[in-house]
Every structure is written in C-alpha cells, then in structure tokens.
Write a structure and sequence with these properties.
Chain lengths: 269, 269
DNA sequence: TCCCCTAGAATGGTACGACCATTTATGGTG
DNA sequence: CACCATAAATGGTCGTACCATTCTAGGGGA
C-alpha cells in the first residue's frame, strides 16, 4: 500500500511499451532490488489501470531482456535479477547467426580477441587461476586416441576453457563477447576436433598455451595461439573446398504477388 | 492453406515459449523471409491451436529479439526483418548499465579491436579507401581552436571515421562490433574532445594514424593508437578522481521480512 | 475519364472474465 | 512430531468483445 503508487496509468495505443518502460526504469534505477519480486500481475493491473494482457506482455519483454525471472505458484512472481553475461550474449549470437557470417571471419575475429585475452590473463590472473586453467586442459587428454569421442562433452569442455580464460582477462566485456561467440558458433571449433589428427594437435596446443600462460610467457602463448588458428584456417579451407556452399542470401520478397495470402509465401517444410 | 501447417500445436504450460521458439526457428531457417509477414495473430491462433494471448506474448518476445517489426492496420502484422546492430548494442548497453561497467574496460576492449582493425585495414583496404580516410580526418581540423565546437557534429564525425576504418578491415564482424560500441557509448570518446588540449591532440592523432595507414606503416599506426588510448586512459583517470562514485551494488534483499507485501519492499520515488 | 473521398475489411491493441496448473503455507490427523 | 490434505496466491491459458489504425476498393462528383 502507501506509495504515490510508483507506477502511473499507461496510455492507450502503446500501453504495453509504456508499462514495460516504467518497470524497466524502476528496475534499472534500483527502486526494485535484485531478489525482490515485482507486484503480482493482478496488482500491477490495478496500479497501471490496464488489462492483465498488457501487464503480461510487458513482463515478457523484461524477461526476454534478462531483467527478471518468473516463478509460478504461491510466492511466485517476477523476481528481479542481476543481468548476467549469458543473457546478453544471445542477441549478438542471434545477429551473427542470421547474417550468415563466414566462418573464416569468425575465426579471424576470435583470434584477435583471443590474443588480447591471453595477454591480459597473463598480466592479471592469479597463480591459482592459471593453475586451474592448466588442470582443466589436462582433462582434455582423455579424448586423445579415442576413436569415437563424445563430441558434445568435448565441445563443452572447450567452451568452458575459452570462457574461463576470458574471465581471467579481468574485463567483463571480453567474457561477454566470448560467450556470445560460443553461443553462436558452438559448432565452430568442432571442425578442429573432428579429425583425429587435428584433435590431438588442438588438445596439445591447449595444454601448451595454458602452461605458457601459467609460466608468464606471453610471446610463447601468443605463438601457440597463432598455431591454433593457422590450423583452424587450414581446416576451414578444406571444408570450403568440399562444400563451396555459396549461400546466396535470398532477396527480400516484394509484395506485388497480391494473390497469395501471407502463409502461402512461406517455404514448405 | 496447403502446408503441413508449418507450425504444430503448442503444449500447455509453456505454450508461449513453444510458439516463440517455433516462430524463431522458422525465421532463422528462412522459411519466412525478411520483408514477409508472419500470418496474422488470429491465423496463428488457429495454426497453433491456442489462445490469442499466447500468440501475442510470443510475438512480443520476437519483437524484443529484433527478429520482427510490427505494423498496425490492414496489411499490418509481424514483418520479418534482418537483425540490425541496434538490437545488439541495446542489450550491450543494458548490460553495461546494470553492471556498472568501468569505462576503462570499454576503452581497453576498444583498443584491442582498434589495433586489429588497423592492422587488417592496412593489409586489405584499397588505396582509394585509405585516401578517403585521410581526407575525412582532415575535415576534423576545422574543430581545432574553436572555443565552442559543436560536440554533436564532432562526435558524429569521429563515429563515422571509426566505422569507416572498421569497414576497411574487410571483416563484417569488426564493423558490427564497432557500430555497437559507438551506439552504446557515443558519449565515450567525448571525454577526449571536451578539453581543448586533448581535442587538438586527438584530432592530430587521427590524422597521423590515417596517414600512416595510407602509407602502409603498421607499426607507426599502432603506435599512434597506443598514444590515443594512453591519452584516453589518462583522461578517464582524471574523471574518476573527480568523482570516485563508489557505486556499491546493494546486495540482494532476502525475503525473511515476511510482514511486508511485495510492493512495500519497493523504494519510494 | 479522372480524381477524391468515404465505407468497409483486415489487423494489431486493449479489456474483462473465467478457469487451469503449480507452488507454498496452513492446519488437522495419525 | 511427522505426514498429508486443503486452501490460498500466483502465473498460464482461453474466449469474446470492442477499439484504433491502416489499406483497399468502389462510388460519386468534377
């Protein structure tokens, strides 16, 4: 109760956006703190003087933005949470996905990021963190010589290693970028792990890089990274030759074919 | 019509997510192309065998993800669009806002990106592009010695220069990242332009960098960039000293104060 | 014939009410 | 004291009605 009620009635026509905006402001300005729930939908409905549908749509938007988390049942509701890197990464991943980025460009970008991350990690990470990285890379060795390794597990370990390293750089933006890249192209490093040859080399390379990071040898570590990406480029080139896959983007369909209804313009499954 | 109807009825309990997911897959797999609209809400309602509210919530999610654009009226509907950088930058900005990212981290990230971009631009851009960059940087000189420069125009020119340079790197990812950064922190480089001293130095530095790129002198160009960011760091440090702004994040409130209703836990306006 | 303008249709936006499903708290029963 | 049934709170779904906006087609006037 009380409260010059925090929220004011929404204007019609864009009530949804209005409500979402007011709630977002309240959250970002920390008038509602992480861990606390927003009022229930029915309560908000009263405060905003609007229909419940509007409230629900606004809440969906906030949920999508990663600002809140929704729980069902008694004591349920929309709980404010801290934005986490993983939430934000999705949009970049989506973006990269829909724009058909050439894997070679992704590799190039990642190499650039990786080099900086490595450099920073050597300078900033604690001895314990560096040692942890080495230990984690050691775990990869169980995959060597296996004829049929569990690619899912291997990919996940690789991903975790990359994120761990990014964290060690001590700059959250790098972690964000790395997570986004992993989300968008989890299948990416897979190409390297597919061939037993490359797999072994890549795993050894990971271990050596970690060791060089732990030993504070930036030049050696950067050299290892160069080797890794040279292998990746080589591998990608081989793939491309096998399947040139022109991937021409279809142009936007114009609407002059007025004879078709919307869902007739849709490609068949 | 036709169609083994593209979409299948949604399960209850999480129908909204289900619908959103199916629509997203249809869009990302290009079963529905950019510029074409999804079926109307009422049509989707039939295809998914669900209520209209569910459809609307799903559509809100897609809109928030930046996958579609909604138009009212006849021939209105949810039109698929290509994802644009603005969506990425919005979530990036949101992330930085709620997590109180240190500007120094942004600068660090940008420096890393800038160095790679410069390196690539020297290797890949055409002579004409490089000359264009030089010409554009020359235009900055009109701002030197002006006591009250139009910061808006200056900021815009700086932004365009950055994006132009990113384009010259010949890898779209760098361009997009640069655009996102510019949109997310347009105010960022402003700090450098605010002081007449730094302003002049920064402008001269831009020109020198462009010239060195045109002359294919990567090492000199990288040195110039280092100087630029050293100045930026210095400038940011000065700002921080003036306003330490501890910005302690309040810890998550626990729920043991069961006597208060949800909206009583909210801070007053 | 040509232009404008209005009426209708299509579509998203809002409101309300009912009921279901899930979760938590409460209190009774063994 | 432990366990379980019941009630209450809350999000999730459905359906209907109506409003607001936009496009289109057809009619009326110049």
């Amino acid at each position: 109760m009380s409260l010059p009620p925090l929220f004011i009635p929404a204007q019609v026509g864009r009530a949804g956006e209005d409500v979402a905006l007011q709630l977002e402001v309240a959250i970002l300005s920390e008038k509602i703190l992480p861990g606390v729930s927003l009022p229930s939908e029915r309560e908000l409905q009263h405060q905003f003087q609007t229909g419940r549908g509007v409230i629900r749509e606004a809440i969906r938007v906030l949920k999508q933005k990663g600002l809140i988390e929704i729980r069902k049942g008694s004591k349920g509701g929309a709980y404010v949470k801290k934005i986490e890197v993983s939430n934000v990464s999705e949009s970049l991943a989506l973006f990269l996905k829909q724009n058909h980025i050439d894997p070679i460009h992704v590799a190039e970008f990642r190499e650039s990021i990786d080099r900086t991350i490595t450099y920073l990690a050597i300078a900033r990470a604690s001895v314990a963190e560096k040692q942890l990285l080495v230990e984690k890379t050691k775990e990869l060795f169980v995959f060597i010589d296996q004829p049929e390794p569990d690619m899912k597990v291997l990919g996940e370990m690789d991903r975790d290693l990359n994120i761990l390293l990014a964290k060690m750089a001590g700059n959250p933006i790098f972690e964000w970028i790395m997570r986004a890249l992993q989300l968008g192209f989890s299948s990416h490093d897979q190409t390297l792990y597919e061939h037993p040859d490359y797999r072994e080399k890549t795993i050894i390379n990971w271990y050596e890089t970690a060791q060089q990071i732990a030993d504070n040898e930036p030049l050696s570590a950067l050299a290892s990274i160069s080797i890794h990406y040279a292998a990746l480029r080589h591998c990608l080139a081989a793939h491309n030759n096998r399947a040139p896959a022109e991937a021409q983007r279809p142009e936007i369909l114009l609407k002059e074919d007025g004879t078709l209804s919307n869902h007739d313009k849709v490609k068949d499954l």
